Structure prediction request, 568 residues.
Amino acid sequence: MSVTNPTVEAFERERRRMLIRQRTQAAVGLAIFTVLLLVSFQRSQFFGSDIGGDPLGRMADFLQRMNPGLKPELLLEDRQTRGSLHAWFYALPIWLRAAWQTLEMAILATAMGSVLALGASFLTAQNLMPFAPVRFVVRRILEAIRTLPDLIMALILVAAFGVGPLAGVLTLTISTLGGLGKLFAEINEEIDPRQLEALQAAGAGPLKKIRYGVMPQVLPNYASYALIRLEGNLAGAAALGIVGAGGIGLELQRAITYTEFDTYLAILLIIIAMIFLIDLFSEAVRHRLIGLEKA
Amino acid sequence: MTRQAYDQAMAIAPAALRAPWTRRARDAVLLLLALAALVGMAIDLQLAPGALMTGFGKLGRFLGEMFPPSSGGQSVRILKALAETFAMAFAGTVIAALVALPLGVIGAKTVVSNPALHFVFRRFLDVFRGVPALVWALILVSAFGLGPFAGVVALALADIPNLAKLFSETLENNDPKPIEGVRSAGASPLLVMRFGLAPQFAPAATSQTLFFLEGNFRNAGVLGIVGAGGIGFELDERIRIFAFDEVAFIILLYMIAVACLDTLSRSLRNRLA
Prediction:
């Protein structure tokens, strides 16, 4: 059955062309992806690397060494008894203290970074900073901060400020400034301009305009973003310790130095619990803030 | 008085409409308490102003030494390390996506409808969501030896719970109508997935995975510090010997690479969206 309707034929041709183009695109994309993946596996020695000849055995050994060997009947015994909880979490007070330090680092850095970001956001918001070159420069600085990975900044700051929480707090403060500065500026640009105009008409200066025209509108959103950032900073602070910036990461590093994998697991559990608790807290506060804003 | 009128009145005559003094006193006390708490934390962490000053002095000197940046005649080695960093990020992201896909399906409310099971599974993922890649890398290097292998696995481990969560949310937000349409046309479950689900899910999931690739390229740059290969190792080595002109060279190169990947990935994501 041969239908020679020119319209149908044209349609069929067009459809075939589109299909071919789509399939070529998909094939080229797939080819690029496959090549990248193969090269990546090769370069990262994912399959070729020497991880002890017997990878599965190695894995089993690894898990075995992470197992604290708890014995149900000895759980509540003292530190000297192998298999008790106390022997597993043998330095719990020190770890909790280090975890608290990590939390303090995160809170301090979030607070200072938010205040700096507040300042920066007014310098980059189109509706509040009429002077374009300032906006441009501050924006580029914030961008540069966001591009630089935290831990690389931490490495340099540890070299300058020495091993300890100071370098960690500074690193997180700067990276918070970079991240929140951008978000705050976006909030600032979305405010209702009528209140600013009213203040302008009443003859208010730029500071008064910010205080009475901007702040009441943006504070709940700021707080919400800052809390999200706090969650991230807490995980960041835990990792920063590994490069020498204080807190619980140092304890992780120590456990690895003595190849105490079960201790590593214990500290990891503390970190996970800490992050989890802060997440819950921050989520609850954020929901309240958003609720308040709507009321 | 409506909220808007109040806002306007407040804007025009703040003094007349100020909150009562009890409220203001309470706010002031709370603010002071918060400040005191922050200062207390700073003292507890022994953040001494003296250390800050000497530190800034040193930092200034380092920054001065950074210019002009120099490759130290090792640009080939540095470029190789950069390639290795990207390879780690790429391999780690692909592995994470492959593992996260089935986990995401299991975690989707629309697939596993038992609420208790769903809750337990989501919480289980949540528990591991916060662990940074560096923390995984530290122990994996100790277990599997130096080299990028541990880095790849660490990046994948850090991503899997996050990606799985995003995948399940994407699946839950899928429009069920195309799926019903394909099913009502008599398609087999496989065809339903291919023509009902995939056209919605694949672009969103790819876009999320690309986003994680960007993040991983940033994270991968530092895994070398604990011995997991890549550019971090080169950086760490040079910071230890205070070769800051070479440090600056590597950082600049890396930042350019990060910006390039971000731009590329963003344009891909925009095309997918």
Remarks:
- DSSP finds eleven helices and no strands in chain B.
- Residues 94 and 178 of chain B are 28 Å apart (CA to CA).
